[in-house]
Every structure is written in structure tokens, then in C-alpha cells.
Amino acid sequence: MKKIPTEGFDTNQVKRLVYKKIIEGFMEDDGYIYDNLPLNNGTINNKIDIVLLSKNHGFFVIDIFTEVNIDLLESSVEVLKDKFFDLQGRFSSHSKLRKDDEVIYKGKAILVCPSLKRNQVSVSYSKNLIILTEEDIYQIKEKMIDFSLKDNSFSINDEEWLIVKSIINGNPGSKSVHNQELSHNSKAYIIQQVQAKISELDYEQLKVARQIPPGPQRIRGLAGSGKTIVLAMKAALMHISNPSWDIAYIFYNTSLYEIIIEHITMFTQHFAKVNPDWNKLKVLHGWGNKHQMGLYSYVCKENNTNYLTVSQASALFGNNNSLLGKCCMKLVSEHNVQPKFDAILMDEAQDFDFDFYKFCMKVLKEPYRLIWAYDEVQSLSSLDIPTAVEIFGVDNDGKPLVELDGTYIDDIEKDYILYHCYRNPRPVLLAAHFFGMGVFRKEGAIQFIPKPGGWEDIGYEIVKGDFTPNTEVTLHRPFENSPNLVEKYVGYENVLQTKLLNSFDAEISWVADSIKENIQNEKIKPEEILVVCLDIKNYKSYATSLEHELSSLDVRLFHEGSNTNFKKPGFVTYSGIRRAKGNEANIVYVLGFDWVNRGIDIVQRRNIAFTAMTRCKGWCYLTGMGNDAKVLFQEINKILENPEEITFIVPSPEKIQRTLDNIEYEKRRNRINKSEVKIKELLKSLKTGDVKFLNEELVNSLLETLQEKR
Predict the structure, then answer these.
(1) pTM of this structure
(2) Rounded (5°) CA angle 288-378-672
């Protein structure tokens, strides 16, 4: 049984006890258990205290009646019935969960009354509902299953179970349209098959998406790990669960606006059958402009003052990467800015400066639900990997203002890592990671993760080596941590390709011809092709020449600019890196790759290359000219020599420009703290139990593990 905590039960010890006993009873079952599951069915209370999905026993809708006044029982029964039939209707509305006009995945409603005795309840059950009292708490699983089996002898297959889970858990889904005429060798057919198999969020994504923390929460994830999907689902569920809350979803890249709106709308409609109330759930750019409201411009408006534009801020503060934060702090210093929001979710958080984080805290009500998601490798400007203390500071007693160690009550995480990458095929992510760090660079690595735990946090396994400087280490990335099936269809070596050209015109011609081939013979839609130009100096020249060449092939190019839409149906997208961030495409061409090897800002250029490569869901093509491109492509081909193991020499710390370790150290402390809590719980249980009856094999295994890890 997988536990998906949402809000927990805080100090309500009665509900906590019931929840604990249900979890203990169904521990070995195949299924999910949720607390405070939100509905929008017109009842006074739109949350179900506990929902249990079991593959073998059906579903249970459970409310906990904590009152001692028996007169309130009848109304609670009716409210629970409404919730039960709402959930049952969601299952019965799916054709594959019906047989002979009957729903095949059945359930029961359980009203648990821990404060009442059996003789106080006149009617304890009906066809779909049973009331359990104080006497039943310690046999709650047996009571639930006995009631379920009265008329629920059924079994469901794996496909039906997948549908059940998707109804409750939400499914990002696929927009692909099945086309019987596609050749099985075409890229379009392969993409169609791959997307059909991406059917549900994984367990870690579900947990972080459903959690509503009673305070700050940090989410670290690789490119393509689903951070935006997770944040959008979290925002939608917060909005459904707490319709009176003022919630803001903040983002950095203006081209993500439509995508975020689409995701939040999809999840709200899926879970609540209504559209979001955009007056209560605001999607805001960080800054804002005349076309699009931002958090900064919104708060300025609330305080009856004009916001500073980027050009005005540059004139006032000079050109730097912290302009937005400086504007926000100026606003706070000159106006009595009051808390407005109950929660703020910040996407692309690596691109916001520290003062903007503090500004978010300023406009948040207690308990300061700031939830930020980021991938430090995608930072296009900063070399810092800040800790929470560095961002938010400490109080007068030296205590951190934001503490991310450990967990909140009811196992709600303060700090999360999403290490599965679903967007990028494994070869693309491997190449992007190791190229971004420069591990195989002739002159040596420029940034590095120096500890094994840091690599494990992003989905790698340590095959051999202990990360002592100047010694050999071998790593492996399991396919299950990058389960994009394109690799399985076309072969590891055919996913990412480099193309060295001898002139600008040759590069343009090769890319244009390849795009024409993608559309005409591989049946890829133009809007699913993205061209990212890295060469800032020649960006417009690449655009003009490529558009002219594509036009001669009857292919249209969309110059992605200030428009909120990143794609245009029937057009190939052409973009720079800043607007491409956060977006994705089935096929990505990265032009002007030789640019990465020119200039002194080598870390930023490698990070930009990493970000461009990881936009790809299918195939990635890197093109460039001259010796600079030749050297870089040799480095990438070296990375991809062995699909299962990557062996390299650990660089010396003094030669590294950027050490990717602050966050890893914090995460390691979190893991240690969690382990210590579990050990304390185990010791407490052992002191009160009869140790001699414990399984000898388990005891020996525990002792061996502790000895080994000391």
C-alpha cells in the first residue's frame, strides 16, 4: 500500500489513530491510501478524510466522525453518501470499468466513529455504507473487508487497475492522435507508441504533487522530471481543496504562460469537473509587462504605484541579473506591502534572485507556503547553488528563517528530489549532464558533483570508485530512471547525433533538408520540431537564412518572440535559449554549437548547451562548424561510447569552477535525519515488544547492515 499524504491531520489525534490503523492493516495490499482527498460535489465539506484504493478489495471512502453528539450523525452519513456516489460515478463513467451495465470496480463508504459505542448507533450499515464504532478500531481492516465482500466478489486486470489509478491520480495524457496509416518505421509512429505508454505519474511525483505543506517546500528535479506538471497539479489541488485561498503560480519564461494555464485547467477539470477560478488562482510572470501581469507588477498595482520596466530598472540599478529583486525590495521599502497569498508556487526558481524569494515571503500569509522547483544546472546566469540559509538568512538568534531538514507532521516533505527523467531519452540526458560539466573536456571538468550521494540523487548508480580526486569512477544510469522508450525503438546510438559542417550555408542547408525529411517522410508535425540557436551574435542571420531555405522547401518557420505562445500549428519553431527553457519538442536541432567553445563564460555556455539539448523528447541533432565544433562533438561522442557505464577520472577540487555540492549536503542531512527517526521508532518498538519472537534472519540482516554502514 502506497501512502500519498496531502495535508495530514495535524493535532487531531483521533483521526491520526484511525488513519494509522488503516495503514497498518492494509500495509501489504496493492494500492494507494490518501488523506483529505478533495472533491467538488456541492457538499459542505468537499474533502474525504481517507480514500483507499485496493486492487483486490475495491475502494473505500472513509470519513471520521469525531463528535460525541449523536444528533449530528445522520447529516454526516448523508454527506459521506454524496462523496461515495461522486467517486463511484467517476469509475462507472469509464466504459472499460463497466460490464453488463454494472461497474466492475466497486467500493464502500465507511463512517468511523471512534467516540461512539456500538449501542449508541441505531443503524450501523446499509448496502453501500457501514458505521464503525470505538470497538471496531483495532480490527478495522477485517471489518472493512468483511463488509466489502458481502457483494463485491470481483477482480480487475492490470489495464483496468491502471484506469482506476489514473482517475484518482490524474493523468497528464497525450495529445497524439492515433493514425493507422503511419509507417512503423517512421518517427511519428515511434513517438505515438512512446507517448501511449506514458500513462501515469510515478509515485514520487504523486506524493509531491498532492502534498499541501504547512510551510516552505523545495522541489529539485532534473530537466524533464516533470516539475511543471507536478507544480500545476499541486496548484490545482490546492485550489480545489481550499477555494477561499489566494494562490499564485509564478514562472520566469513568458513563453510558458499558455502551457501552465493548460496544465492547471486540465487538472482542475479532471479532479473537480469545473474550470479554475482565476481570480483566486493567479498565474503570474515574475516581473510582468503591458501584455502579462507579473507578481511584482500585481503587488505594485495593489499598492497604487507604477511598476518599473526592465529598461527603467536598468537605468536605476545598472545592468545585472538581480534587477527584479531590487525592484521588489524598493517597493517593499517605500510601501506598506501586506501579505496577500496563502500559497505561492515558483517554477524555474533557479532563475530568480534571492531578493525575489524574500519578496514572495513578504506577500505570503503565515505559514509562508512558498513552494519552489528548480534545476540548478539550467541556471543561465548564476554560478551559485544556494542553500535555504543563503537565500532567506537567519533570525536574531542565528536560527534559519527557512528550515528544510526533516519533514513536517504526517510525513509531508520539506525537501524533495525528482530524479526520474521522462522527457529525455537516456543518451540525451547522459550527454547533456557530462558535457555540461565538461567531465571529458580535454582541459578538464569545469563543474562537478564531488560526492556519490549527489550522483545518486539525480538517478545514477555508483559501479565502482569512491570519488577520491584523481581516481577512476564508473557510473551507470539505469533505464528505469530515464524510461523514454525512443532508445528501445531506434537504438541508443541513433537518438542523439552530431553533424560537423564546413560552412554556414552547409549547416543551414543540412538542417533545412533534415526538417523537410522529418515532415514529409517521417510524418512529424512541424510544430513538434524545435530549432534552438546558441550563437547569439549570429542569431538573426541563422533565422533569416533558415527561413529562406525552408520556404524553398515549402516549410514555414515561426520566429518565437514575445508572443505568449511558443508554438504555432503548421510551423517549425525557431528560438533562442531563454524562450526555449521549459518547453519541449519531439525533435530538437541545436544550431551554432561551436559557439559553446568560444568565450570566457564557459560554465554558462555549457549550461546553455545542457538546457538546449534537454528540450528534446525524441531525437536531438547538434550542428556546428569548424574546429570548435569538431572538438566539442568528439567530447560528446566519447560520452556516448558505452550506453551502460561511464568511466572517468575524478577532477581535483581546485580545478573546478563550480562545485555542485551545497544542495547535495543538505539532502544527505535530510536522509540521515529520516533514518535516525526510523531507527528511534524501531528502538521504541523493540523495547515494548518481545524481541525473542522476531525473525532471526531479519535481525541478523539489520545488524549486518548497521555494521556495514558505520
Answers:
(1) 0.85
(2) 110
